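Appendix B.2, paired examples.
Example (i):
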Amino acid sequence: MDDGVAAPLKNRFGSWVGSPFPIAPLFLLASCGGDVTGPIDPGSDPNFTIVAHSDQGFTETNRKVEVFGVPIYAYATVEDVKLLHAANIMAQYLDNNEDGIVDNSTLLSALISNNAALYMWKQERQAGSINAQDLGADESIPAWHTNGHTGRFDAALEEIWHVITHSGFANAYPTALSEEAGTSLANAMDIARGGHFQSIPSPYPGGAWYTYDDQTCDYGCMAGEYIYWAMTSVLGAQENRAGEIQQEWKLNTEAKVRQTDTAVYELLTDPEYVFPTALPDGTYRR
C-alpha cells in the first residue's frame, strides 16, 4: 500500500486456475464469511467479466476476474467497480500498447507458471488472510487518474505491479531482475541505497536516494519496492508526490531517474524486458 510511504511486499502469491481471457459469468450463490450472499453480477466492462469461483486457496473470496490468465479475487464486500478497476490496471501493465496481446509472452508465462494472483479485501481483518498479494478496496482510488494525479494515490498501481515483478519479471529474467543480491536489479538498488545492506542502515549514507526504512522489509522486499518506485517514477506517477515520498524515494520524475539512477534506468528501458512505457489509468482498450 502506498499512503505516501509505500508498504513492503506483502504475502507471496497463491494458486491460479482458469483461461487466458474472461469467460461467461456463473450466476451462483456465493458467500464470504457470512458477510454477503447473493448472485454474482458479471459487471458491464467491455473487456472483463466477473465470475463466481471455487478456486483452492481463495474460497474466502466469492468472485474473480481473470486478466490474460492471471486472477484477481475479491471478498464479497469489495465493490465491483474496484475489482474491475484493478483488472484494467493489470491489463494495461501487461498489454501496454492495448492491442489485445500481452507485450511480453515470457513475462506472462512466468506469471502463470508461478501462480501469480491478487486478492482484494474490504475489512482490515481480511488483509493478509490469503497467501497472495493483497489490495485494499479503499486503497484503490480510480479518481486519482482523472484528478490530475492529485489527492490520495491509487494504490492499485503499486500492489498490481508487485505481482507482476515478483511473480513475473523476477522469474522470467532471474539474472537481471530477481530480488536476490547480485542481480542487475539488486546491484542498482545497492547503488541507490549507498551500499549493500541486508538490514536497514541507520542512518542511510549521505547521497542515497532510496532510503526505505521499514524494519519488516527484508532485502528481497527492498528490491521489490525499489523497482516499484523507479518504474512508476519513469512512467510519471510520482511527479506530484515529492513531498509525500521523499523519506524513502527522492527521484520522483523520469528525468531524475534517468540522470541519477542510470543503472536502473538502463534496465527499465532495455527492450529485452518490454517494460511499460505508459502509466495505466484503468481504461484498458477504452
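Example (ii):
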Amino acid sequence: MVRGFDAIVLTTYSDTKMSRNAPFVFGIRAAATAIATGNTTILKSSELTPRCCWAIGQAFSDAGLPPGVLNILSSPPLGAPEITNAMIEHPAVKKINFTGSANTGRKIARTCGQNLKPCLMELGGKNSAIILPDADLEEASKACTAGSFLNVCHEIHIVVFFLFLIACLSHLPFITPSFVTY
C-alpha cells in the first residue's frame, strides 16, 4: 500500500459490459473515485478490453500519479474467477466496485458477503442524478434527457419529481404540455 492511502479498492469488470459500454468512462470513473477518496486501487480489466485499462493506467501515470496508487491487472478468461476471488479475499482489499452482468455480480457479491467486504455493483440499467430543490429544472431536465441516451439516467428527489417530469416531457418533440409555465 502507498503511504498516505487508507485501503485498496478492487475495481473489476467482466463479461462484455465494459467492452461494449464505454470501457474508458467506467474505468476512469471507478479509479478516480477510489483515488480521490484516499485509496489505492486495483483496476482489473474485462478479459475483452485489457488495453483500455492499460491506457487508463498509463494516462494516470503520465499525469503524475505516484507508482502503486493505481494498479492495472488483466487476466485470461479462464483464470478470471480465481484471480478475482483471491483479490476479494485478500485482507488488504477493503472494498469492491464491480461493473458487469447480473450473473457475475451475484458471484462477486457472494464472495464479498462471505468475506464481509462492502461492494458497489453496476449491473446494468441507469445511473442516478441528484436534482436538488433549488436546481434550474430546465437545465437539469435537458441534461438528464440527453444523458438517458448516454448510459446515464436519474433518480429524483421526491420534492421535485413532478416538476422535473413535466420539464423533461416538454423537451420531447411530440409532447408539448400546455399547462407548463416557468
